[in-house]
């Protein structure tokens, strides 16, 4: 297959990804549930402040001390070699079928982590523990994102990759106009990657922590109450799946844009 045919194959796969993105946008444009807003107005401000601080602490702990621990849960070397093998097959065969196989391979590893996240969230919720599970919850999400990054050949320890990951996490849970803005920021990074300044990642940690705190305020508040906390725990896989769906789409899109550019 020549470069022009491969470029067209990339474009067809990109159209599929863009169709999935429109579905996510439609979901993001839906109004929040009224019961959630009603409860939110009753929650003391200090709960939000503590929740935001807990999320920011979770990101900092994992970025600074948790990467080695996370890397013990999978074989980084195996995933890098797997990417090289599958990427080479894409370059050699140059068909949309091969691009789809690449995408399906990345998606196939998601189910068991969803089950683990459910157990983690419900277990801590039953005990009436809200805040302490946040580091564990963010750790599960970053573990999965790191695996996706490796499957697409990207080093998640680089500052620019951490910044992209944080922006994707914010965009994935955003609503309405905020989703549009956050998604545009992600798209800009996909197309024009650059090394951020020294404070950019830390600033984005604050933004993402704020986004998570605002969106999960009610459910995490409920999770801090005995028994009723199961509701909060059950929300964890919902967030997990929403974030990972967005992240997988964006990484695949990034890969396709790179392949298309090489073929032009």
Can you describe this structure?
This protein is an all-alpha fold. 82% of the residues lie in helices and 0% in strands. The chain has helices at residues 3-29, 34-40, 45-71, 76-93, 96-107, 111-126, 133-151, 159-173, 176-191, 200-223, 229-263. α8 runs antiparallel to α9 (176-191) and α10 (200-223) runs antiparallel to α11 (229-263).
Q: How many DSSP helices?
A: 11
- The percentage helix is over 70%
Strand segment count: 0
Uncertain stretches: 121-130, 226-231
| Global shape | globular
Q: What is the average per-residue confidence, as pLDDT, rounded to a whole number?
A: 83
Structural class: mainly alpha
The helix/strand order is: HHHHHHHHHHH
* Largest β-sheet summary: none
How large is the radius of gyration? 19 Å
Distance between the termini: 14 Å
- Beta-strand content: under 5%
Give me a quick take on this structure.
With 264 residues, this protein is mainly α.
What is the secondary structure topology, with strand pairs?
Layout lengths: L2 H27 L4 H7 L4 H27 L4 H18 L2 H12 L3 H16 L6 H19 L7 H15 L2 H16 L8 H24 L5 H35 L1
């Amino acid at each position: 297959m020549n470069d022009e045919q491969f470029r067209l194959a990339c474009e067809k796969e990109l159209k599929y990804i863009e169709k999935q993105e429109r579905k996510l946008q439609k979901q993001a444009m839906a109004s929040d549930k009224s019961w959630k807003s009603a409860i939110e107005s009753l929650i003391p401000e200090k709960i939000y402040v503590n929740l935001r601080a807990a999320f920011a602490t979770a990101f900092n702990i994992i970025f600074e001390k948790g990467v080695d621990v996370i890397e013990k849960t999978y074989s980084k070397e195996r995933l890098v070699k797997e990417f090289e093998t599958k990427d080479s097959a894409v370059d050699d065969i140059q068909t949309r079928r091969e691009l789809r196989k690449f995408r399906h391979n990345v998606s196939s590893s998601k189910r068991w982590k969803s089950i683990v996240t459910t157990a983690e969230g419900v277990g801590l919720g039953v005990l009436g523990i809200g805040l302490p599970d946040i580091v564990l919850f963010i750790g599960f999400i970053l573990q999965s994102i790191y695996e996706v990054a490796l499957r697409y050949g990207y080093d998640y320890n680089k500052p620019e990759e951490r910044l992209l990951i944080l922006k994707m996490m914010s965009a994935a849970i955003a609503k309405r106009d905020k989703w549009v803005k956050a998604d545009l920021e992600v798209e800009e990074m996909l197309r024009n990657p650059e090394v951020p300044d020294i404070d950019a990642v830390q600033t984005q940690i604050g933004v993402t922590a704020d986004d998570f705190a605002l969106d999960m305020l009610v459910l995490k508040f409920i999770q801090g109450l005995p028994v009723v906390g199961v509701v909060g725990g059950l929300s964890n896989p919902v967030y997990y799946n929403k974030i990972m769906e967005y992240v997988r789409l964006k990484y695949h899109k990034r890969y396709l844009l790179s392949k298309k550019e090489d073929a032009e």
